[in-house]
Structure formats: C-alpha cells, structure tokens
C-alpha cells in the first residue's frame, strides 16, 4: 500500500511539474516580438492619487475605483503572463494555412497598443468619475513611460476638496396625494446632511422613492420623474439639494392604481402574434380569479394560493414580485409572464394577466460523474426520471437509479480496496405543508414543501462484505427568510443489514473492533431537524456567516416503551437489528472576513455531540463522526484520526486501515484565500480536530472524551492553488502534520521532524489533495 501511495504521489507531482514547465515555456516567449517598428505594447494604466487630506487606505480604494474605468484594457494576464497574446503571437500572420495556428489565433488576443489609448479621453473620464463622488474641482494629468516596447501610462489625479451635503429639502405639493406620499417617507432618505455628494446616492434615492410609491399603488410612476437639483454655489464646499417631481410627469403616474380583474392561463402556449388576451371559456374561482384552462391541467386552489393580489387591492410591487417568485418556484412552468393592462371598465384600475407556459410533464436526465477524494476515486452514473404536476397541484415525482464504482488510491488496506454500489431513490415533493392539523404556512413569502422519500442501496466491498440499506423520510422544508431555512424530518428511518462477509474480513474483525462496528446491523427511527443560516450572498458585507445546526433523535420513545437498558442486558431488536437510541447534536459555523476585494480569511468551527443510552452504548456506524480528508484536516487521510489518542489500526499484514470514528467531534479550520491572477487563486491553511468516544472501550485505550481533549487535537497545515472557472473550482492542497495526537506526550508536536529534503519524510508526511470546490 505504501508503495502504491508513493507511485500515485509521484504521478501527481509529475503532472504538476509538467504544467509548471509548460507555463515557463510560454512565459519565455516575447510579448513584443511581432510589433512593427515604432509600435509599443500597452501593458498598464496607473492612477496615482495626489492628496494630503485623504488617508492611505482611501487613496488605495479611490485609485482602484478610477483605474477600473480606464480604456482600453491591457491584454489579459495569468500570473503576470499575457497568455492570450502569446497564443496570438504563436499563430503569426499565416494562421489560415495551419489548423493548429488557426486554433491559437482563435483563442488568442490581438495586442493592445499604446496607439489604441486616448489619454485625453481617459483624463476626462477620470475627472467625471471624481465629480460623480463629490470632487467637483478635480484635476488629472498623465504621462507615458516606454521601456523595451512596453508602455505604461501614469495618471496623476488631484481630487482637491470634496463637497458635502449642507441641506436637503423635499419641495413637494403637500396638498396632493402624491406629495403627501413622498413626504411620508422623507425621513428614510439616503441624502443625509454631512455626507459626501454622490451621483450614485442620488440615483439610489430616486429608486427608493419610486419603490416606496410602487408599494402604495403608483404603477405608472418612474424614477425619471424625480428631479434632484444641486446648488454648489457656496464657497465652503457645501451643496444644497432640492428633491422635486418633474412638471412633465404624466397625470396617470400621479394616481394610485387598483387591481380589477385577474386572469390566469395555467397551460399557455405562446403564439407567433405574441401573448393573447382572449378570455373566452374563463371560469371564475373564489370570486377573484378567472382561469382559462379548458383541459384542467392544474387545480385552481393551488395556483390561487400563490397569487398575492385580489380584486380591489391597491397595486403593490411587493405583491407583484412575490407572485412571480412563487410561480417560478413551483418548478412547473418554463415561462412565467404577467401583464398589467388599463381596465376598460374601472378608471385608475388594472387588469392582470398571468401567462404560465408549462415545462414538459416528463423529463429524463442522465449524469456521469467523476469522483475524487484522498482515499477513493471512481465514477458514478445517475438516471433521473421526473414527473411534474403529478397530481395537478404542482407536485413533483422523481425516480433516480444510480450505480457507481470506486477504487482505493491510498489510505486503506487491500481488503477494502474497491467497491461498487447501486440502488434507487423515489421522492414526492408537495409545494405546501401537508398536516392533519389543517392549513399551515410558516411564511407566505416563500413556498414550504412536504417531501416523502424512499431509498434502497446495495454496497459490495468486493473483498470484505456487502450491505443492504433502506431509508424512508417524511418531512417539511420551509424558508423563514432569505437567510434562514428549516428542514424537519418528522420521521426518518434507516435500516442496514450486512451479508456476504468474507473469511479474510471475519479474521480481521477478531483483532480490530472497528471493522466489526462497520458492519453491525443498524436500525434508526426518529425525527431529524436541520436549521441553516447564511448571509454569504451579501457580498458588500465585510463579515459574513454560515451556520448549520442539526438535532437527530432515534429510538427515544421506542426505548422508553420497551424499557431498554444495555447496562442491565435489556436490549431489543427490530427486523433483526438492535434499534439505536441516542440524542445527537451537531453544529457547523463559518465566518468569512473580507480583507480586500481579492482576499479573505475563512474560518470554521465544527462541533458534534451525542448521548447514546437505553438500547445503545454508542452511535451506529453511519451516524458516527470522523475527521481527516480533503474537506477536513487535510494533513491526514479520511477517517484516519482518533478517536482520542488511539493510534491508527494496523492489519495483520502491517497495512494501514483508516476508519476511525467517534461519538464526539471537534474540528477547527482557518484559511487565508487570495487571488493570484485571472482565475488562479491560492490559499494557506491550518486545520485541527479529533473525535472521541462517549464511553470507555477496553479495545480502544485513550479513545474516551476527557477534560484533556485539547491536548489530543491533531493539527496540520499547508498551502494550495484554486482554479476558479466560475462554474467549477478545482482545488489542489499540499499539507503536512504539525501535531500527531497518538504520539507519546511531549512528542506530539513534530515541527522538529520536518525535512522536505528527505524522500522518506515526504512519502510518509506530505499529503496531496485534489478536490472540487472549497473545503468550507
């Protein structure tokens, strides 16, 4: 096994060296070799802020903001290398005569020349950008530096003093309804005395007023009807602002609109002449909604429940957007379109038309996946068949048949070296809460869902054993807000039975209890609750968070009814398996600190606690915690740490078997992430953690959780590259152990043993992980 691991490591290193060599060859090319006499390559535009009143940090921000405006952009670079330009140069002028050169020409990029840059235009552009943020008297100068046919243009920007807001006056007609409605929200104005003048803030203030009016019925109002006049004639660098409604604003935009009739086309097919308004065969439902659906493809109450307007309501943008959002989220329609049309029957009223074009009722999707981990690599095939609107209420029925094969590439012993698995899963999802206690809707803003799942899987570890597993779930998912989501499985049942245990595996079980625990028959029954909070989508925040908490219960009521107590030998079976009885609590918290536009510090704390009692001494194998691997403590293999100070198990032939699990878990990670160039990023990280057992186990000395748990943490660290292709992130990590918990006390920190020059040390300690996505 060690030899195999060494071969794999060398192969991966050779691959990395090959990429580095190719990059070096490209970098050795000249970016200016094809330039004509007198031409220079434009490589960079710098903006230097000349000011004694602006702090260094704000100078950097202003410089970055202004620099992004310069035109044209230099040739794209990766790690400082204009790679697209090199491809273009390699193609040359005779690209049409050679297929390879044509390809290079296609993916390449023409050189951006100094002659392409209009300095005067950029100077005016920079002045304009500074005026837009309050520097009305800004000055800009520029000069050019050319070295070896490479040109850099330096722009010196002198902002001078910034203008601030001295007063804000809403100049409205308070006798009109429009004037009163605008004045009623003036205390929420974004234009605040003492703040810098900013064109963006003025535009945002117009949008704020428009949005507020839209929620008060002013459907035809527009931000363009708001005029913000600025008086900068003061000599004290102050401005007065006057907010008014333009005189040319149409009369229709000054009056709130009400909703008249609501028409819904649930099975609409768009014609070449556009959207039709024919309401023939319309059926009135609930005295509010006209349905045009002769085939009755959808049940009317289901759709009506997601329409947030009723006849007589004042138009409201929030209700408008929520209706569209709900209809889209039902995942039954390919297109969701609505039109608001002036009513011919009622003045200042709107008729609403909803055109819903269904998705295909049935769909088939086939996926072929490649799987990579520190221990197993392989492939998987998924065939998914979906039936939409299964019961005419936007329900979704899906069947997924899957199969896969994975083989060992490191970490485990030969008897566990490869496996294949196959199975199927059936899921029914209802876009509402199905409850015997009547209609429940936790939040009308988002659609709650009820799910019923059934799953069967067959796993064959060819040289060890086979497992048959069945899982059943019934529960609800609902979103409380954009940041908070709940998942309550009222009933979660898992049943696992082993078969076909090999003679070799049976022998190993006699010496390694962990092997026996992995194939114990398992039966869990109980509720499972997950709560997720995240605001990481708010990119403007400096600090963002992610948290997922889990409460998992099994056999609690059943154990009480049976009077189970393993201490007294009173344990019970269901379907030839001892049912598990435990309380399990897990939490995964992450913090992301934005250090700059291209760097951040990401940290994670993962904690798992459990208490097994009654019918169980410990958690079942599938529910136990483990650490190590590409998304955990990367200096150690998956499941290769703990529990406690227990050393990794060795099989009788001396091979390592990494399958260490426990009832309690603590994991800590922190990672500095930064952009190198283009899509290439890098990171440096430190990981720590371990797992422990709830109770003493004579076969696992040192595995029980104790007050000395901090002294039993495994620690590792390293660095790696991330290739961010937007749709896919490929991650490479090199890491080494800093602290090994199963070594004797006083010898666990291993900094003194680090020796990169030793091939044996690298083979035993240097861990390489190739993975998809960030670890957290």
TrEMBL record:
Subcellular location: Membrane
Keywords recorded for this protein, A-Z: Cell outer membrane, Membrane, Signal, Transmembrane
Location, primary (coarse class): membrane
GO cellular component: outer membrane
A Pfam short name: Omp85
Keyword Ribosomal protein recorded: no
Bacterial surface antigen (D15) domain location: 379-740
Matches recorded under InterPro entries: Bac_surfAg_D15, D15-like
Source superkingdom: Bacteria
Classification via PANTHER family: SORTING AND ASSEMBLY MACHINERY SAMM50 PROTEIN FAMILY MEMBER (PTHR12815), TRANSLOCATION AND ASSEMBLY MODULE SUBUNIT TAMA (PTHR12815:SF47)
Name recorded for this polypeptide: Bacterial surface antigen (D15) domain-containing protein
């Amino acid at each position: 096994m060690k030899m195999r691991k060494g071969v794999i490591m060398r192969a991966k290193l050779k691959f990395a060296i090959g990429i580095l060599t190719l990059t070096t060859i490209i970098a050795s090319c000249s970016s200016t070799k094809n330039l004509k006499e007198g031409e220079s390559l434009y490589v960079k535009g710098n903006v230097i802020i000349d000011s004694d009143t602006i702090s260094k940090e704000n100078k950097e921000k202003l410089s970055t903001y202004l620099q992004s405006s310069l035109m044209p952009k230099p040739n794209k670079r990766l790690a400082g290398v204009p790679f697209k330009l090199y491809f273009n140069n390699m193609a040359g002028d005779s690209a049409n005569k050679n297929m390879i050169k044509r390809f290079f020409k296609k993916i390449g990029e023409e050189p951006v020349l100094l002659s392409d840059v209009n300095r005067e235009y950029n100077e005016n552009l920079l002045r304009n950008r500074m005026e837009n943020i309050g520097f009305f008297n800004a000055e800009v100068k520029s000069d050019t530096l050319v070295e070896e046919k490479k040109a850099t243009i330096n722009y010196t920007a002198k902002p001078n003093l910034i203008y601030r807001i001295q007063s804000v006056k809403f100049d409205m007609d308070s006798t009109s309804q429009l004037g009163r409605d605008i004045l009623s929200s003036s205390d929420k104005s974004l234009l605040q005395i003492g703040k810098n003048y900013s064109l963006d803030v003025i535009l945002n203030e117009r949008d704020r007023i428009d949005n507020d009016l839209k929620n008060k019925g002013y459907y035809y109002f527009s931000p363009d009807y708001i005029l913000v006049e600025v008086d900068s004639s003061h000599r004290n660098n102050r401005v007065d602002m006057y907010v008014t409604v333009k005189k040319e604003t149409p009369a229709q935009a000054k009056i709130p609109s009400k909703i008249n009739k609501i028409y819904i086309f649930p099975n609409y097919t768009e014609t070449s002449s556009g959207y039709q308004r024919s309401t023939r065969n319309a059926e009135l439902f609930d005295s509010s909604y006209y349905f045009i659906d002769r085939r009755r493809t959808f049940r009317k109450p289901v759709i009506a429940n997601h329409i947030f307007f009723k006849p007589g309501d004042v138009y409201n943008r929030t209700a408008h957007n929520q209706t569209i959002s709900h209809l889209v989220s039902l995942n039954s329609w390919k297109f969701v379109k609505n039109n608001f049309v002036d009513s011919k029957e009622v003045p200042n009223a709107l008729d609403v038309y909803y055109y819903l074009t269904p998705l295909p009722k049935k769909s088939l999707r086939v996926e072929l996946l490649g799987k990579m981990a520190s221990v197993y690599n392989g492939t998987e095939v998924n065939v998914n068949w979906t039936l939409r609107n299964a019961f005419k209420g936007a329900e979704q029925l899906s069947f997924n048949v899957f199969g896969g094969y994975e083989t060992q590439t490191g970490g485990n012993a030969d008897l566990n070296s490869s496996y294949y698995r196959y199975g199927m899963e059936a899921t029914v999802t209802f876009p509402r809460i199905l409850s015997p206690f009547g209609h429940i809707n936790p939040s009308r803003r988002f659609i709650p869902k009820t799910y019923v799942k059934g799953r069967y899987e067959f796993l064959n570890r060819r040289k060890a054993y086979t497992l048959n597993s069945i899982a059943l779930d019934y529960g609800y998912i609902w979103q409380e807000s954009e940041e908070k989501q709940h998942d309550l499985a009222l009933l979660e049942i898992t049943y696992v039975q082993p078969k076909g245990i090999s003679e070799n595996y049976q022998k190993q079980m006699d010496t390694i209890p962990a092997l026996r625990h992995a194939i114990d028959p398992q039966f869990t029954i109980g509720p499972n609750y997950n709560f997720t909070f995240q605001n990481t989508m708010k990119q403007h925040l400096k600090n963002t968070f992610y948290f997922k908490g889990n409460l998992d219960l099994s056999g609690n009521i059943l154990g009480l009814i049976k009077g189970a107590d393993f201490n007294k030998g009173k344990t019970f079976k269901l379907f030839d398996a001892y049912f598990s009885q435990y309380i399990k609590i897990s939490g995964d918290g992450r913090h992301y600190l934005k250090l700059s536009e291209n760097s951040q510090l990401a940290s994670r704390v993962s904690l798992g606690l459990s208490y097994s009692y009654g019918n169980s001494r410990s958690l079942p194998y599938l529910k136990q915690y483990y650490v190590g691997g590409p998304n955990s403590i990367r200096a150690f293999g998956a499941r290769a740490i703990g529990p406690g100070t227990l050393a990794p198990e060795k099989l009788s032939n001396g091979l390592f078997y990494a399958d260490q699990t426990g009832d309690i878990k603590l994991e800590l990670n922190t990672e500095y992430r930064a952009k190198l160039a283009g899509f290439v990023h890098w990171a440096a990280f430190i990981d720590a953690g371990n797992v422990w057992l709830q109770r003493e186990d004579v076969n696992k000395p040192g595995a029980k959780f104790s007050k000395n748990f901090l002294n039993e943490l495994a620690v590792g660290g390293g660095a790696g590259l991330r290739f961010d292709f937007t749709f896919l992130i490929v991650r490479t990590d090199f890491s080494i152990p800093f602290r090994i918990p199963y070594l004797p006390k006083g010898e666990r920190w291993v900094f003194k043993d680090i020796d990169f020059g030793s091939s044996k040390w690298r083979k035993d300690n240097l861990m390489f992980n190739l993975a998809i996505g960030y670890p957290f």
